[in-house]
Design a protein that fits this description.
The chain has 221 residues and is mainly beta. It is built from one helix and twelve strands. The strands form two sheets. Strands 2, 3, 4, 6, 9, 11 and 12 form a seven-stranded antiparallel β-sheet that branches.
């Protein structure tokens, strides 16, 4: 098990140093970004994948994205794993203070991590997000099949016409729900360990939420 975890840490560190985020799209996504700084604070955090103090949020300098960094988000089955470790989840409730006269939408999300899956094992990454009080939720999932020993990245992009904008003139918290699930399948859990992580010890591997902005107009809600 120690060898597997060491490999995971080394691969994650390599991935973190080699990844350089860039712009996600051409205009009109970023034609009207506010100059006043957006402020995000974690209102509540719950879940086995993000114990207190292990999830952090930061806003980019140019207001085009914010990142969520996890430090203890690991699902695993097999040697060294508890029966409940096969599934980890995190529910974040973020208080969003948006510059006056603007509204935003989530245009693209990049989820990243590392997975080691034995032959016969599989894993599932799920994510959803929505505005407080809204009925529409953007929910997606991705399947991984062993054998697998590599960094992983899942990208969710929303086209401009389908963007869901935060209501203008209202304070609505933003909710993020994520889940990692590792299934042993036909792998031998008495001799092997399969795992999937969405964490980073150095804080360089994170989930990036790229934003679109627009000015609020009379009648917007």
């Amino acid at each position: 098990m120690s060898g597997v975890l060491a490999a995971a840490g080394a691969a994650t560190a390599l991935f973190a140093t080699s990844f350089i985020p860039g712009p996600i799209a051409t205009p009109p996504y970023f034609t009207d970004v506010p100059t006043d700084k957006m402020i995000i604070t974690v209102a509540t955090v719950n879940g086995s994948g993000c114990p207190a103090g292990t999830a952090a949020v930061a806003v980019s300098e140019d207001n085009t994205a914010f990142t969520v960094t996890y430090s203890e988000y690991l699902a695993q089955v097999g040697v060294g794993a508890k029966p409940t470790d096969f599934r980890k989840n995190c529910q974040l409730n973020l208080a969003m203070k948006v510059p006056q006269g603007f509204t935003y939408a989530i245009a693209k999300v990049d989820y990243r991590g590392y997975a080691y899956l034995e032959d016969g094992a599989n894993a599932l990454q799920k994510a959803s997000y929505y505005f407080q009080g809204a009925s529409n939720t953007d929910a997606r999932q991705e399947q991984f099949v062993g054998p697998f020993d590599d960094n992983w990245q899942v990208t969710h992009t929303t086209e401009l016409p389908a963007l869901v904008w935060a209501p203008c003139g209202e304070i609505r918290n933003f909710n993020i729900n994520t889940e990692l699930r590792v299934n042993a399948g036909t792998s031998n859990t008495k001799e092997t360990t399969s795992l999937m992580t969405m964490d980073s010890t150095d804080g360089s591997v994170d989930t990036t939420y790229q934003m679109a902005w627009k000015r609020c107009e009379p009648g917007d809600d």
